[in-house]
Amino acid sequence: MEAVVFVFSLLDCCALIFLSVYFIITLSDLECDYINARSCCSKLNKWVIPELIGHTVVTVLMLVSLHWFIFLLNLPVATWNIYRMILALIND
Questions:
Q1: Are residues 59 and 74 in contact, defined by beta-carbon separation less than 8 angstroms?
Q2: pLDDT tens digit sequence for 41-82
Q3: Where do the DSSP E strands lie in 1-92?
């Protein structure tokens, strides 16, 4: 079971790194005026929920599998993403 948890965590982290690179490239395109702000927002907004789910799943999985140190490392990022989502829902 432990190997499955870490393999899934590795794949999830790879996907999150890829998503972060995509965010940086899209924001760089916005900065260089290759795309407008509306297009940039529509491209990035559809990936916010999968990012939130990815961080939260890994954090909960580490908590359930009793890997406390890795759980504590992932907890601030998951908490920040949940806080950011709650603020976005309140402001809409």
A1: yes
A2: 999 989 989 999 999 999 999 999 999 999 999 999 999 989
A3: none
The Cα 20–Cα 27 span in angstroms is 11
Question: What is the value of pTM for the model shown?
Answer: 0.83
Tokens of 84: 């950011």
The count of domains in the chain is: 1
- Cα four-point dihedral sign 24, 42, 12, 65: positive
Q: Identify the pLDDT of residue 53.
A: 92
Helical pair 37-45 and 2-31, crossing angle rounded to 10 deg: 170
Evaluated on CA atoms 69, 70, 74, 79, the torsion sign reads negative
